[in-house]
Amino acid sequence: MSDLPVNLKYAPSHEWVIVEEENIVRVGITDFAQQELGDLVFVELPELGRIVTANEQCAVVESVKTASDLYSPVSGEIVATNLDLSSEPEKINDDSYGTWIFKVKADDLSALDELMDADAYKVYIA
Predict the structure, then answer these.
(1) Which of 77, 84, 92, 113 has its CA 20 to 30 A from that of 59?
(2) Fold observed for domain 9-108
């Protein structure tokens, strides 16, 4: 497994998160998750404008083995989705930390305090 980026936060459900300007939270899945899933064949993206709450299921990644739900790390509005993944879901397998899935404009960033840093996530997946 590759080294975990220390600038990201990690959810127990294996999403990675980074905060961009204006409370925009970019979300993807971890390298651990994509390795466990295997070759991804489909990504169901959340609908733009959808209002989500923290820990609400809002997207799905499907592999040749199984499907896995993705959860929003914060409450807010879905403001962007990575449309490239509709035709190229394997981008996540190729570069899990360079490929985001959706972005949420957070109402409040305090939910991110519950997420793990890289060291804690390493212990979690060990």
Answers:
(1) 113
(2) OB fold (Dihydrolipoamide Acetyltransferase, E2P) (2.40.50)
